[in-house]
Fold Diaminopimelate decarboxylase.
Amino acid sequence: MSVRRLADWSDTRLRRLADEYGTPLYVHDHDRVRENYRRLTGAFPDADVLYAVKANAGRHVLDTLREAGAGAECASAGELKRALDAGFAPEDVHYTPVNPPARDLDYAGDRLAGTDATVTVGSADTLDRLESRGFTGRVLVRVHPGVGAGHSAEVATGADAKFGVPRDRVHGVLADADDRGFDVRGLHAHTGSGLLTASDRDDHRTVVETLAELVAESPVALDRVDVGGGFGVPYRESEPPLDLDAVATATRDALAGLDVELAIEPGRYLVADAGVLLATVNTTKETDGDLLAGVDAGMTTLIRPALYDAYHAVRSLAPDAADRVPVPTSVVGPVCESADVLAEGRDIPRVERGDLLAVGNAGAYGVEMASTYNSRPRPAVVALAGDDERLVRRRETLADLTTHEA
Ligand code: LLP
């Protein structure tokens, strides 16, 4: 099953988990993560799959994907630490820093110098900075392809000059890295995040073609092309899934004739629909337009709706939901900002205080982007595997909020 909708989760199990662990609660299903991984590797049987840790860096997720056979793509010293501590072998780790702070590179130098890890450099001067820290190992050069796509402009990184080396300078950076004694392996680009439509696929293909051209004319022999992540999942019930086979075929076609190993960096595709967020309705309010359901999760728990205007399905888990009349409902959180809206104008069986709501596709960029704004402790996370369940992240307490203050 390539799509898992919110209705596919067991209401009774979710209600029991909310009773047991309280809300707001993230529930992550590791069987689904494994299924997603198998489907992806089925479409890309020859690719090196590096999980983009930023989508969900929980140790439980890293363990599941490492055991399934994935490597790890890390964007920061923190992600690098998590991946190495979780047991990913350095040769399976790609570090893809963006304008890396000195402290991050100090850490990367300490842990990666002398290993087979790969560093993807997005700026010519990162080579200096790595060399001065003793790292002269495997490198990829990140290309700024000038073409981006994704669920919103904020994540269409391929079109943002902050990321990668301009096309006309790529060969110079490759030659420079080679001269300095780095083990120059290949090129990298990331089109953007949340690729779903045929037009997104075309943009992705254009990016891969750009990489292929640059490899073919490279002054240094290259054996690796990393096309980044970005494989999207449907968030709306009406959206069809990404045609993964079409993406894989277009990628292979664009690279035809080159003797290179392919790497991909999926984040969302592996974990998004493996997670739901559970929230309890504490307040209801009639307005002229919608019924407002005030819940105990908000933009500090799941920021995607506030930040990207992202759509997440919402479902009532009230045992008698089927007997209630659906009314236009907006689901709002407890944060003192008008942006604190999880869902707007949805037809949901009339909510009542005490009801439990489930928010779908919360496994990617959910708990990972949670904050303590408004001094709200971050939520707990429960991981499921078969009939087993485990609290993998305890709910933060009010005392946790001040532990870092001097
Ligand atoms: N590789 C690189 C170099 C990336 O920058 C990213 C995501 C990925 C891989 C993984 O992309 P994915 O497969 O998960 O789409 N917070 C946003 C997503 C930002 C992604 C940024 N880069 C969201 O909630 O939609």
User: Anything to note?
Assistant: The domain at 30-270 is CATH 3.20.20.10 (TIM Barrel).
